Amino acid sequence: MATAGIHLAASRTTFADLSGGRLREGAGGLHLVVLSPDVELARACLAEELRNVGRGAAATWADLRDTHATHRRLGDAYGYPACCVEAFCDAHAEAVLQGDSLGDNGLAIARAAARSASFHPWLGSLPGAFGAHAPTPLRHLPCRFDCAASLSLAEALYADLARVDPLRHRRLAAGLTRPVWVDRHGVATLASGLERSATHWSVKLPSGASARCPVRPRAGEALLPTVLPFAPRHSPA
Questions:
Q1: Is residue 128 one of the residues assigned to a domain?
Q2: 38 in the same domain as 62
Q3: pTM greater than 0.90
Q4: Band of the pLDDT at 213, cuts 50, 70, 90?
Q5: For labelling, which of 65, 91, 154, 210 has a CA lying 20 to 30 Å from the CA of 53?
Q6: Pair (48, 61) in one structural domain
């Protein structure tokens, strides 16, 4: 299918979200869709995505290399910063080596948070948590939430969005302005009431319960749960 020179390739089956950003084929889910000005590229990327979804946990180093090669090809095709693609591959390898059955998404988020000196609202892209409803035009998980390459890409996408869809631009312009709680399973949830002590974050969850975790886990401590302290910016981006 093509509209205004943009070609669409879509999966025949639908997929449901699982914990940690994983996908499983299932009725009532969403179709995987790839858009591109090049029809062959759209089809090739969709085929790669479908192979990756159906691939189980890496059993050998060859499996791991194949999975990472797929991530790199797709990241390059989608224009994701190379630093972010490599960070995601590193988190995937770490999750596999640890035998983590919950997926690599939570670990990738925790590693990105640990690298971050600040949390820019435009980089609050958590595909496994928000999917198409992420409050940013980015569609990749940054290697850190102050990644210069990701911020440059976000600026370009916001400029395009202001030109082609002003209403959506206004809706997304603030970015992610609330703290995010990432539980021990890697599931991210919008929170409120962010407070910080010398050693710990605390937030209020949608259920009304309070949650608490270290600001900087010590060596040997679990990386999850964690808090991503996003907040409104009071100065120009």
A1: yes
A2: no
A3: no
A4: very high
A5: 154
A6: no
